[in-house]
């Protein structure tokens, strides 16, 4: 009877799958027919028009701004618009498209990066949560709000691996690790696109910046990338591929040069890798004036670079109008074929079809939804919960934290009384007025028995020009232009009446993000001098550190008793900071990126190769070893690091079998105990090392993680299955293989503090 039931269930599953596949095939052949028939009516100009993306002008990142937009739309010369919001404005603009000869609807995009009006923590912070369902939900909420405001396309997720803290855009991605980055890329795409792009509350994702943008030389934005294929395929490509595998509808080509050919004109990248190797079927858009910028890269005039970009596989031209103004001439001169134009045009039209825009061009234009589905209480609550999961407790000497909800707390520092700097970079839709300052956030959580006072204490940076450049886009922080010591003295007066000092220091939100690279990744000196003065008071000091990148805080890690790294937490950043400071929420974030001792160690990442002259573990300087004279090789805080208000104890790693047969799995298990006094969450991390390879392999690679909640005294067995797939890598022939031989598995609380066991992959 049981067997019969099982067979019946299996039969049903198989049938359902076949049915779903048939449905999908029917849908795609309907789409093919529709698009084919539409294209048979289109002129060359109209086809080229579909490849033209213009900006509605609400937020721009380049020098070019689109003009005569409505006329161009009505003439069928525009395929999409970005940075225009609200159902009213989008309806009006879509109506212009409905006046064009073939009434082809436009797509409406925007940089909805970490939330829409309800802003979630910056992507680097979200990665620090290691909480995939929560991260997926942030994308879901963002899609819900953005689509309620008329949008159907987002330039997210940004999945560039970044191992250089100087690069400002490290804040926009998931950090240094391909495994964590891939897992996040996948859930972000799922969150935006849901299971059906044609629903009016899902939006199309755009994976960016393809590719390798995070590896720009010297961390300088838009700079050159020169990289081996070993590194590309094993370390930098996986998150893009994961997003493609998850069904992302579009891809954005990156600005950077790759081994001599900029991504936007790189046929190997955009056609051979993306389409032929990975099977991508969506469309590729350039970055902002990325096509035009090929001229500055040295590839020729606008006509030449436009032809080259199209032929390489860039289907849509963002803002620069190189396609619009030159492609027709290139066809006539035989530089571009009609088939190439047709192909790009088809891909853009298919995206519109999948979004359901041909069925109803105004389906995202609901004033009612805009009123009821944006910045809802539920969304703000989700933002607060999310933010609290992203903070990383770096130090907590003598359990200074959590704070008591009594007495006087002095909040001191340039980040303590600012609203706009709490949401972080790339939050173009944020309603910054509703964001509580840190003082207000702490007050809200603390209740009536706590007095919260404030003093500026120092400017953001001593140099007023640097401060101005670091507080663009309405992120001003007022300056006090009196002598520095006077400003400090005022703060010391406020501090003297307090029981605890909360030093709100670090970066402003625009000190990271696009075109915000830094060569000095310390806390600005003027703030450090303030901190030293605060520490001298002898009062307990908690450093609440705002940052969009790993900062070099060696000195602070030695002198300050408690450090909570809060990144930029979004709309509810400060209430969440209050939740964690007072222990209503126990911090559980873990660094998704290595914190260096100083900028000279950068790029620094845990999954490095061993070299032929490795330094013995725990060592410092040793002549003729791979090390520095002046600083050890160790990071200040390793990848995966983060403390809790409770403590966890890890048992030894137990393996179900020390031999792994191909096609089978083995299980690695540790027992994890909450040895402290409060409930807490721990991110248990599993790493693997391939001890002998046909190519050199990293000393450790993340291959699994689980976020586990434990009550005080509770123990749980935490298990990870290991299969041959987990051991695969791209070899010298770029074949994805697992090589039989010896491996180590490590399980622990961060990438440095692990227990290990050995196993073999059999032939
Ligand atoms: C950025 C992209 C962004 C685009 C559109 C560019 O400058 O590099 O990440 O999506 O602008 O705003």
How would you describe this structure to a colleague?
The model has no long low-confidence stretch (mean pLDDT 96). Helices cover 33% and strands 17% of the residues. Among the domains are: 375-601, Glycoside hydrolase family 3 C-terminal domain (Rossmann fold); 648-761, Immunoglobulin-like, CATH 2.60.40. The chain is an alpha/beta fold. Beta-D-glucopyranose binds at residues 61, 111, 155, 208, 287-288, 514.
What is the count of helical runs?
A: 22
CATH topology of the domain at 375-601: Rossmann fold
Q: How many strands appear in the DSSP assignment?
A: 27
CATH homologous superfamily descriptor of the domain at 375-601: Glycoside hydrolase family 3 C-terminal domain
Structural class: alpha/beta
Keyphrases for this structure?
single chain, 22 helices, binds beta-D-glucopyranose, alpha/beta, 17% strand, 763 residues, Immunoglobulin-like, Rossmann fold
What's the short story on this structure?
This protein is α/β, with parallel strands linked by helices and 763 residues long. It is 33% helix and 17% strand.
Helix-strand layout with pairing:
Elements: H1 2-41, H2 44-50, E1 52-55, H3 69-74, E2 80-82, H4 87-98, E3 107-110, H5 123-129, H6 132-148, E4 153-154, H7 178-193, E5 206-210, H8 229-236, H9 238-245, E6 250-253, E7 257-258, E8 261-262, H10 267-277, E9 283-285, H11 293-297, H12 302-312, E10 317-318, H13 322-332, H14 338-354, H15 367-372, H16 377-390, E11 392-396, E12 407-412, H17 438-446, E13 450-455, H18 464-469, H19 484-496, E14 500-506, H20 525-536, E15 541-546, H21 554-559, E16 562-565, H22 573-581, E17 648-650, E18 654-655, E19 659-660, E20 665-674, E21 680-690, E22 701-710, E23 715-723, E24 729-730, E25 736-737, E26 741-748, E27 754-761
Parallel strand pairs: 1-2, 1-10, 2-3, 3-4, 5-6, 6-9, 12-13, 12-14, 14-15, 15-16, 19-27
Antiparallel strand pairs: 7-8, 11-16, 17-20, 18-20, 20-23, 21-22, 21-26, 24-25, 26-27
Helix pairs in contact: 1-14, 2-13, 2-14, 5-16, 6-7, 6-16, 7-9, 12-13, 16-22, 17-22, 19-20
Beta-D-glucopyranose binds at residues 61, 111, 155, 208, 287-288, 514.
């Amino acid at each position: 009877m049981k067997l019969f039931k099982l067979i019946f269930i299996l039969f049903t599953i198989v049938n359902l799958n076949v049915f779903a596949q048939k449905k999908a095939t029917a849908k795609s052949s309907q789409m093919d027919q529709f698009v084919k028939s539409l294209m048979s009516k289109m002129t060359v100009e109209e086809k080229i028009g579909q490849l033209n993306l213009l900006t509605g002008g609400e937020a721009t990142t380049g020098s070019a701004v689109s003009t005569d937009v409505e006329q161009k739309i009505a003439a069928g010369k525009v395929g999409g618009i970005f940075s225009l919001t609200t159902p009213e404005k989008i309806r009006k603009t879509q109506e212009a498209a409905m006046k064009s000869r073939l009434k082809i609807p436009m797509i409406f995009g925007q940089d909805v990066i970490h939330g829409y009006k309800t802003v979630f923590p910056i992507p680097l912070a979200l990665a620090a949560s290691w909480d995939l369902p929560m991260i997926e939900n942030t994308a879901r909420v963002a899609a819900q709000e953005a689509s309620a405001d008329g949008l159907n396309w987002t330039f997210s997720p940004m999945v560039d691996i970044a191992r250089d803290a100087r690069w400002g855009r490290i804040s926009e991605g998931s950090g240094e690790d391909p495994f964590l980055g891939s897992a996040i890329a996948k859930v972000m795409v799922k969150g935006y696109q849901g299971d059906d792009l044609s629903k009016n509350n899902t939006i199309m994702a755009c994976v960016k910046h393809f590719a390798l943008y995070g590896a720009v030389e010297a961390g300088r934005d838009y700079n050159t990338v020169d990289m081996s294929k070993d590194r590309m395929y094993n370390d930098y490509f996986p998150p893009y591929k994961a997003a493609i595998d998850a069904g992302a509808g579009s891809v954005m080509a990156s600005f950077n040069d790759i081994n001599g050919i900029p991504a936007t004109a790189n046929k190997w990248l955009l056609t051979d890798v993306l389409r032929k190797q990975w099977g991508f079927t969506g469309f590729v858009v350039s970055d902002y004036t990325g096509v035009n910028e090929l001229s500055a890269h040295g590839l020729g005039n606008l006509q030449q670079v436009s032809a080259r970009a199209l032929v390489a596989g860039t289907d849509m031209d963002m803002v620069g109008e190189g396609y619009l103004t030159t492609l027709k001439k290139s066809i006539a001169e035989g530089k571009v074929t009609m088939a190439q134009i047709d192909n790009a045009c088809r891909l853009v039209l298919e995206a519109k079809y999948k979004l359901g825009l041909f069925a109803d061009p105004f389906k995202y234009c609901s004033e009612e939804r805009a009123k009821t589905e944006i910045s809802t209480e539920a969304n703000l609550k989700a933002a607060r919960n999310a933010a609290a999961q992203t903070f990383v407790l770096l130090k907590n000497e003598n359990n200074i934290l959590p704070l008591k909800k009594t007495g006087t707390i002095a909040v001191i520092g340039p980040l303590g009384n600012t609203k706009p700097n709490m949401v972080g970079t790339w939050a173009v839709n944020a309603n910054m007025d509703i964001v509580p300052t840190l003082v207000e956030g702490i007050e809200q959580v603390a209740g009536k028995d706590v007095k919260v006072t404030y003093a500026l204490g120092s400017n953001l940076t001593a140099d007023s020009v640097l401060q101005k450049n670091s507080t663009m886009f309405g992120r001003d922080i007022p300056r006090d232009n009196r002598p520095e010591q006077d400003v400090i003295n005022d703060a010391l007066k406020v501090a003297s009446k307090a029981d605890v000092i909360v030093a709100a220091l670090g970066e402003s939100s625009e000190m990271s993000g696009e075109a915000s690279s830094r060569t000095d990744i310390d806390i600005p000196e003027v703030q450090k001098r303030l901190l030293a003065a605060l520490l001298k008071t002898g009062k307990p000091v908690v450093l609440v550190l705002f940052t969009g990148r790993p900062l070099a805080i060696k000195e602070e890690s030695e002198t300050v008793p408690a450090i909570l790294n809060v990144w930029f937490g979004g709309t509810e950043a400060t209430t969440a900071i209050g939740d964690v400071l007072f222990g209503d929420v126990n911090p559980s974030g873990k660094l998704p990126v290595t914190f260096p001792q100083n900028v000279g160690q950068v790029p620094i990442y845990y999954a490095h190769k061993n070299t032929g002259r490795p330094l013995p573990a725990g060592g410092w300087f040793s002549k003729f070893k791979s090390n520095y004279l002046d600083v050890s090789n160790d990071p200040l805080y390793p990848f995966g690091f983060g403390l809790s208000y409770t403590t966890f104890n890890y048992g030894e790693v137990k393996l179900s079998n020390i031999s792994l047969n191909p096609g089978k799995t083995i299980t690695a298990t540790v027992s994890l105990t909450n040895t402290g006094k409060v409930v807490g969450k721990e991110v248990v991390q599993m790493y693997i090392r391939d001890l002998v390879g046909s190519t050199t392999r990293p000393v450790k690679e993340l291959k699994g993680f689980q976020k586990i909640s434990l009550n005080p005294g509770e123990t749980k067995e935490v298990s990870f299955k290991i299969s041959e797939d987990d051991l695969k890598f791209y070899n010298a022939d770029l074949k994805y293989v697992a090589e039989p031989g010896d491996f180590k598995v490590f399980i622990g609380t961060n990438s440095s503090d692990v227990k290990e066991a050995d196993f073999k992959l059999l032939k």
